[in-house]
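request received
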Amino acid sequence: MKVKPMDDRVLVELLEEETKTASGIIIPDTAKEKPTMGKVIAVGTDEDLKEYIKEGDKILFGKYGGEDITLDGKDYKIIQRSDILAILED
Amino acid sequence: MKVKPMDDRVLVELLEEETKTASGIIIPDTAKEKPTMGKVIAVGTDEDLKEYIKEGDKILFGKYGGEDITLDGKDYKIIQRSDILAILED
Amino acid sequence: MKVKPMDDRVLVELLEEETKTASGIIIPDTAKEKPTMGKVIAVGTDEDLKEYIKEGDKILFGKYGGEDITLDGKDYKIIQRSDILAILED
Amino acid sequence: MKVKPMDDRVLVELLEEETKTASGIIIPDTAKEKPTMGKVIAVGTDEDLKEYIKEGDKILFGKYGGEDITLDGKDYKIIQRSDILAILED
Amino acid sequence: MKVKPMDDRVLVELLEEETKTASGIIIPDTAKEKPTMGKVIAVGTDEDLKEYIKEGDKILFGKYGGEDITLDGKDYKIIQRSDILAILED
Amino acid sequence: MKVKPMDDRVLVELLEEETKTASGIIIPDTAKEKPTMGKVIAVGTDEDLKEYIKEGDKILFGKYGGEDITLDGKDYKIIQRSDILAILED
Amino acid sequence: MKVKPMDDRVLVELLEEETKTASGIIIPDTAKEKPTMGKVIAVGTDEDLKEYIKEGDKILFGKYGGEDITLDGKDYKIIQRSDILAILED
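response:
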C-alpha cells in the first residue's frame, strides 16, 4: 500500500536529530522538542512541486506544520509546501 | 437516493482503523480519537477534482475536517479538497 | 411576490428530518439540533450556480450557514454556495 | 441633494415589517429586532451591480450589514452588495 | 504646501453636521459622536478613483475610517476608497 | 553603507513636528505621541512605487506602521507602501 | 551538506550588532533584544527573488520573522521574502 499525498503535500519519514556529529550537521534549534527534518517518501499530485522536490530529498519543515500518521510503527508526516523551509543537499 | 457532493467535496464512508495487522497498514496517529480514513462514495461537481479522486479511492483526511452525515445507520463525511491529505494506493 | 436570491445564493424551504424510514433516507448527524436539508425554491442570479442547482433540488447545507426568513408561516433559508454540501438525487 | 452610493453599495429606505397580512408577505425571522427589508433609492457606481439591482427594487439584507444614515427624519441604510440577500419581485 | 494622498485615498475637510435644516439635509445617524461628512480637498494618485471622486465633492464615510491630521488648526481626514460610502450630489 | 529597502518599502528619516508655525504647516493630530512625518531617504526595489515616491519627498504615514532602525544616532523607519498616507508637496 | 531554502526564503547567518562604531553603522532599534541583521548564505528556489538578493548580501529583517536553525554551532535563520526589510549596500 502506497500513500500518494494530495495536491502540494509531501509524505516524509521523520529523521532523528543527528547531534554530536562533526562538521556539516544541521540541528533545528527547536529540535529538542520535536524533530523537524524528514526524508521525502512521496511527492503530491501538484506538477509544480515535483520540479523542486524529489523522493529521497531531505527537507526541513516548521515544527508545527503537517499531519502525523503512523505506518508499520514508523512516524510519518504529511506536509504542505508552505511549511517546507528548505531542502538539504549533500 | 444518491448524494452528489457540491463543488470540490467528496462523500466518504468512514473506515475502521485496521490495527494489529502485518505490513503495509496505515494507522492515523490520532486515530485513537476518531478515524480519519475513508472510502470515496461520490466525487463532487468540480471537474479538476475528478482527475485526482475516483469513487472507491481510499483517502486520508484531517480529523477536524468535513461534515458528518448518517445514511441508513452508517457514518459518512462530506470533505473538502483542502482537507484531503493523501490517497491510499494498493 | 417572489424572492430572487442575490449572486450565488439559493432560497430553500426547510425539510423535516425523514427519520425512522427504511433504506435510502439521509439523516444529518446533527439534525437533532436543527434541520439542514432543504428544497430549493429559487436559485440566485449567478450564472455558474445555475448549472449545478435547479429549483426543486434537495440539498444538504451546513447547519450554521444561511439566513433565516419566514414566508406565510413557513421557514426558509437563504444559503450561499459555499455552504451547500451536496445535492440529493433520487 | 442626492446620495450616490460608492462602488457596489446601494442606498435603501427601510421598510416596516408588513406583518399580519394574507398570502405572499415576507417577514424576516429576526425582524422582531430590526427591519432588514428596504426599497432601493440609489444604486452605486459599480456597473456590474446595475445589471442586477434597479431603483425601486425591494431587497432583503443581513440585519448587521450596512451603515445607518438619516435623511429628513427617515431612516436609510447604505448596504454593500455582499450583504444583499435577495431581491423581492412582485 | 499641499497634501497629495497616496494610492486610493482622499483628503477631506470635516464638515459640521447641518442639522435643523429644511428638506434635503443629510445627517449621519451616528453623527452625534463624530462627523462623517467631508469635502474632498485632494484625490489620491490612483487613476481609477479619479473617475468617481473630484475635488470639491462632498462624501459620506464610515466614522471609524480614515486617519486624522490637522492643518492650520482645521481638522482633516485621509480616507481610503473602501471607507467612502457615498458621494453627495446637489 | 546604504540601506536599500526591499520591495514596496521606503526608508524615511523621522521629521520633528513643525508646530507653532504660520500658514501651511501640517501637524499630524496624533503627533503628540509620535511623529509620523518623514523624509524619504531611499525607495524600495519595486518599480511601480518609484513612479510615485522619490528620494527627498516628505511623506505622512500611519503612526503604527513601519519598523524602527537607528543609523548613527538618528531615528529612521522602514515603511511599506500600504502605510504611506500622503506625499507633502511644496 | 548545503541548505537550499524553499520558494521565496533565504538562509541567513546572524550578524552581531556592530555598535559603538564610527559613521555608517546600522543598529536595529530593537537589537537590544535580538539581532535582526544577517548575511545571506543561500537564496531560495524562487526565480524572482534571485533578481534582488544574492549570496553574501547583508539584509535587515523583522525580529519576529523567520525560523531558527543551528548548523555547526552557529545560529542561522530561514526568512521569507515578506520579512526582508532592506538590503545593506556598501
